[in-house]
Specification:
438 residues; mainly alpha; two-stranded antiparallel sheet
Length: 438
Amino acid sequence: MDARTLAAATPDSRDRYVDFLRAFSISVVVLGHWLMATVTWSSSGVKAGNLLAAVPAMQPLTWLLQVMPVFFFVGGFAHLVTYDAVRRRGGRYAQFVHGRIVRLLKPVAVLLAVWVPLTVALDVSSLSPAVVRPVTKLVVQLLWFLGVYVLVVALAPVTLALHRRYGGRVLVAYVLLAAVIDWVALGLGVRAVGFVNVLPVWLFAHQLGYCYADGSFRRWGRLAVAGFAGLVVLTTVGPYPTSMVGMPGERISNMSPPTLCIVALTCWLTGLVMLARPFVTRWLARPRVWTAVVALNGVIMTVFLWHLTALLVAVLVLLPLGFPQPTAGSAAWWALRPVWFAALLGLLALLVAVFGRWERPRAAKYVGWSGRTSVTTQGAAVAGVSLVAVGVLGLALIGLSEPMTRDASIVVTRATPLACLAYLAVGAELLRRTARPS
């Protein structure tokens, strides 16, 4: 279906603001990456840097630009609504995870179908591995987000049950757990433990989405104030850096692994966007605006997955052709940002036009479920979602490039790029098959 048809068919009961926040959060992430990346070209090669390192005074802007918590917040809303709908139609866990994960994997499969053979070609070329490896790792590094999101989806039935039984006490438990993990990782120096915070920190944002969906929390203004105050205290009195994104040379990163600061950031941003909801919702009632939001959401993961490829193409084409390279943060650098962004948007639009067709929604075919799916089917669904999570996270950590036998620890196993691709393929096939009623 095209965007106009989908927009016209939108039921009055749909919360359009959720769709807006999904498109908005990913768009801000894309623009933020393009803004922060400072890349220069010389005869000795490409040199990458970070605007926030060149201009440290801009680091507080990440309190507005690091909007990934908003995406997980929106996910919580969508998963509550979807899970209840699946249960009403007689489906169970397998049908739920299929509907939420397989649709995300289609644009990932397209990205890998292009970059895996391209990586092999680059590996056997005369290019230096010092050039090939960072490039081919960069294009899949963003998959960390999808890997974590898959874990959150997999746990959604459990976290939803906890929400309905214990309410806000679950949120408090996440905060306390994140604080304890930070104390062990940063206070006691056991840094590896910090990665356990991937779950409580992002589940906190996701759980807030449940509160939005069922109306169990309404004090969004107070939440925003508490989150902002928490950020101020944690980054001044506490040991945490000001930037909400990783900085080169920093002893502590607030994002990798996520820290208690991201919990405070989640409170600040979700409270802020919910305060804006009445005003934006009225704006979304305009047919043209809503159609644009529907169109963007139809290719939003393609936009996310390919925006760094667009940046790489621009760097490798425009800079050698003489595109000006003033000092990052200088007046001349800022003056050129509109031109640079226009070039990146043009390249990304071309990539989306080519690859976005595999993500765009098609006419839905309703499949009725008897409500009786076997234990084996449900177990296969758990295995499938686990393999997908390991495969996606593994590729984000290891990258695609040679040596394909290079391994790294992923959760409780060790994996190579080839193994991660296999995990992803097998997991996706299991999810596809277990969506069928038994």
